[in-house]
């Protein structure tokens, strides 16, 4: 795919809609398009967070290791990001991401991702919005699980 096609794909992603074309071109140039087949891991829990992945097409499960085995905690799809938390916190990956169907991504290196956030405050705010939405959903899920345990007499 040619660079201008990558830029057009990025322009359609809400996160990048207000970004100058020159910055999108630089981001596209420094990123790698990757295709994952069903069942293939985009990243594994515990690995070093060296890149974030923007989902261009397809769907993937977010899975965490638990005492009872793998636990699906979310599903992501087109225009979603994965892997940004490990980059932002400088910690190992907190989950494994597995392709459900064919998934096409743009792999954005840690350096390019952090530079993008620094250069474009609007993107940083959007990433913050997405992370707070995830936190809110997790808090709601945890509250529901605690209510079920309480109702069942398990504390």
What is this structure's SSE topology?
Blueprint: H1 3-12, H2 21-30, E1 32-36, E2 41-43, E3 51-57, E4 60-66, E5 69-76, E6 81-82, H3 84-89, E7 96-99, E8 103-109, H4 110-119, H5 121-151
Antiparallel strand pairs: 1-8, 2-7, 3-6, 3-8, 4-5, 4-7
Helix pairs in contact: 1-2, 4-5
Produce a short descriptive summary.
The protein is α+β, with helices and mostly antiparallel strands and 155 residues long. The protein has 5 helices and 8 strands; from the N terminus they run ααββββββαββαα.
In words, what does this structure look like?
- With 155 residues, the protein is an alpha+beta fold.
- It has five helices and eight strands; from the N terminus they run ααββββββαββαα.
- It has helices spanning 3-12, 21-30, 84-89, 110-119, 121-151; strands spanning 32-36, 41-43, 51-57, 60-66, 69-76, 81-82, 96-99, 103-109.
- The strands form two sheets. The chain has a four-stranded antiparallel β-sheet with strand order 1-8-3-6. A four-stranded antiparallel β-sheet has the order 2-7-4-5, with no helix packed on it.
- Helix 1 packs across helix 2 (21-30) and helix 4 (110-119) packs across helix 5 (121-151).
- The termini are far apart.
